């Protein structure tokens, strides 16, 4: 067995930063589980302020891949990280193992999509370390293999992940549809629990696909929702985007609640925060909510309403804290020192 390529630079190290994203038109369900091919297209906004920074060093001195996540060895995530790195190793013609050091500036595993920014930063750093210079579409495809929503975190602003048609998934990649600066919405994230979620997205969506009687309707109605959201974004029509986004969120949760056993990601504070957002909107404040596979409520608003929205969420019983952010840019390379700094 050839152990590794002789072309590998001994100093094959690079770092990248990526931001989490929040889906407005949700991804839920896979048509191919190993490839993470979705049953529906989806559309998201990439956040600013929150980030994952990751450095990857490929070394001929390493006998196995290693992962440090937020300062701790993480064996649980390592298998997926290794599988994702294998895609890049295959392109580079190397079998060199890697040392990955990654950290988030936001809570991991609490419904804030750390896997999205995590795999986007990982593939971008590994691509740079190996000197591949792959196109962003390929990086999106590889990030998708790590976690579906990570395909979207390669890009900034408003991003659509295409359903695609191919069995190999090469066309199921994300693309940017509008820059963050072109319509700078604000996001307030109401944290209602910091516990790890009981049932992760992967397990939840697989259970839903197998048991929810609404799966067919979910698939059949998604294309119209995507078209509606796209049109709202192009026209900067906040009301229209608010209506279709809340619809997609509640439809996804209704679909998942109808699985067997039903998936209930909300707690009492989640519901209270949804009512608070609806009350604000009814009084004329431009804001809407969305919720992923966890109990946090993301309130999206026009910039002038940001202060009022965050203040109102802080008053909701059971809301522990509120993170405020704008929309952010694409994943990018950063100096290695910035990735590993405390
Ligand atoms: C509810 O991308 O975390 O946030 O592909 O299994 O890793 P895997 O799932 P993941 O699921 C995200 C689901 C969601 C909706 C969305 O982000 O579109």
Instruction: Tell me the β content.
Output: 15-25%
The tally of structural domains comes to 2
CATH class of the largest domain: Alpha Beta
**H/E series:** EEEEEEEEHEHHEEEHHHHEEHEEH
Average of pLDDT: 94
What general outline do the C-alpha atoms trace?
globular
List keywords for this structure.
342 residues; alpha+beta; Alpha-Beta Plaits; 2 domains; six-stranded mixed β-sheet; four-stranded antiparallel β-sheet; 9 helices; binds ligand DP6
Explain what you see.
There is one protein chain. The protein has 342 residues and is α+β, with helices and mostly antiparallel strands. It folds into two domains: 12-180 and 331-340, 2-Layer Sandwich (Ribosomal Protein S5, domain 2); 186-326, 2-Layer Sandwich (Alpha-Beta Plaits), CATH 3.30.70. It contains nine helices and 16 strands. It has helices spanning 75-92, 114-129, 136-146, 201-211, 215-234, 238-257, 268-282, 306-314, 336-340; strands at residues 12-18, 21-25, 30-32, 37-38, 42-46, 52-59, 66-69, 72-73, 97-104, 158-161, 174-178, 186-191, 287-290, 297-301, 321-326, 332-334. The strands form four sheets. Strands 8-7-9-6-1-16 form a six-stranded mixed sheet. Strands 2-5-10-11 form a four-stranded antiparallel sheet. It has a four-stranded antiparallel sheet with strand order 13-14-12-15. Helix 1 (75-92) packs antiparallel against helix 3, helix 2 packs across helix 3 and helix 5 runs antiparallel to helix 6. Residues 1-6 have low confidence and may be disordered. Bound molecules: ligand DP6. Ligand DP6 binds at residues 23, 26-28, 36, 42, 113, 115, 147-149, 201-202, 292-293.
